[in-house]
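Researcher: Next entry in the queue.
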Amino acid sequence: MDLLRVLQSPDLDVRRKCLGIALGMVTSRNVEEVVGLLKKALARTTEAEAEKTPGTTEYRQLLIQSIHVCAIKFSEVAASVVHALMEFLGDTNNPAAVDVVAFVREVVEKFPNLRGAITSRLLETFGEIKSGKVFRGGLWIVGEYCSDAPEIEGVFEKIREVLGEIPILAAEQRLLDAATAAAAEDGADKDKKETTKSSAPRVLADGTYATETAYSNNGARLEAVKNANKPPLRALILGGDFYTGSVLAATLTKLVLRYGEAEGVDAKRANSLRAEAMLIMTSLIRVGQSQFVTVPIDEDSQERIMNCVQTLASAELAKNTRVREMFLKDTKAAYAKMVAHEEKKTAEKKARDTKKSAIQADDLITFRQFTKKATNEGLDDYELEVSRATGAAEVGSSVISNLSRVVQLTGFSDPVYAEAYVKIQGFDILLDVLIVNQTTDTLQNLVIEFATLGDVKLVERPTTHTLAPHSFHSVKATIKVSSTETGVIFGNIIWEAGTSETCVVLNDIHIDIMDYIKPAYCNEAQFRSMWTEFEWENRVNVNTTITDLRTYLNHIMKSTNMSCLTPEAALSGDCDFLSANMYARSLFGEDALANLSIEKIEGTGNIQGHVRIRSKTQGIALSLGDKITLAQKEVAPLA
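Model: Structure for this entry, 639 residues:
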């Protein structure tokens, strides 16, 4: 609880890290106190003064996500939390409302005893919802979890309320006709008053006759009808959101099918409800083809709505068990499978984290910059022994991987040969440079001068040395990295031989971005939000000899250190096309997104497509694109 006082800080990153630490410390004993404090903080974000503060909407969304995590993990607080969060379904801040409806959907799936109260409260908020995405989530919830006859009748009643008068087209046309008739009466009265005025032609200053053009006011009246105050769902449909209309059609179909199976429902009432649902669906299609909508209905939505109409209009509806299973069981089972997949992924991550070797509270902290030069060698040996004993040695610290990090700085024919072993330690790059005197002269005041380009900074400059003939010496330098932007280390070696000074230019050392990018995970809503927000995009066309789609995906993931966000169920099966979302995060908190869209060409078996990379900074997008281009030329290992 003391840690949560940090939420008073105005910095959003500090709040995010505070909540991340606090959520890992929540237990069944303190969950009610934590959730209560988060609810109070959430309530403060709705105050008038808080609305004017920048970052309030992001902070509100962060609090909602944190409460979501607590409620799912500890079921005893879910009932008290869900009703409080549902007040934000009508929030004008779309991401926060979307997070709330996602939370409600998960709660009704995991806690069946709360379904009745939640669906009733959800129906009450339908009149306040302004977002099509939130409406789609709410319609899906009531379509899947309202099973009793009274509940279904209540859903139909609420849909009539938020949809308005049916048929939509006839009602809108009636409003337009009334506006036209009223305008005609006003025009007739105006003509009577102007009959006494002269109708002589007017002559302009240049000698030409002035002409008067009568514009029709039909367009203005139509716009007035469109802009009139309408129920929320009706306003969305007339605004061109026919995807929500198709979800409404699917929801009505599920409710009608389930209503026919309910106990105590006579055939007459069931047929009446079926007819009403079909009337609403046909009304959606007709108004989508009229002048009253902002955008005409798209083919996909029209086809989906027509499929629902044909399903309800079928004479053998009661006998068609496959269609009933598809509407009543398959979609719900798909969501349950997705929730189980998320739980499995969370459990695997928790198991991986618990296996990591934790550092004890009384362990010494070593600051390399504060140690004496003479003790560096022994300190490194001690750390190496400890890491080997505890099993905490760096991943890939084999001889082969160490050799791959050796960079040749000078040529073999140069008077001084130099090579560097590049070691990555967190935000630091340690350069262990081996210098060999290949001459018969003594090299005095030999020094390596390093310079950097990009967001890298030289922390420790090497000192001067004297090198005997054919002897060697090891020099160390520390480079501080502050971001994943492309960085280059360059320099030269200067020494004195006799009375002259000689210089050898070193080869450049390019910082590998992969050392600072690690696989990460985010949900679909976060991915879409970041994809829309990030402005830098790099598109890489696929050009590879790999012929298997899944093998290519795994190869790209391994080459870029990115994790696949697309569920395994969506990638399984035999298909000639594949689309997947990937995500990674740098050690500096920078996000990198990627979308892979590929297909196998029939006949040749080759793969074509592209990889789109988006990030907030240009450096990550370009570096990952170059990495993918190089990885495509390599032969991927067999899956």
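Model: The chain has a mean pLDDT of 80.
Researcher: Noted, moving on.
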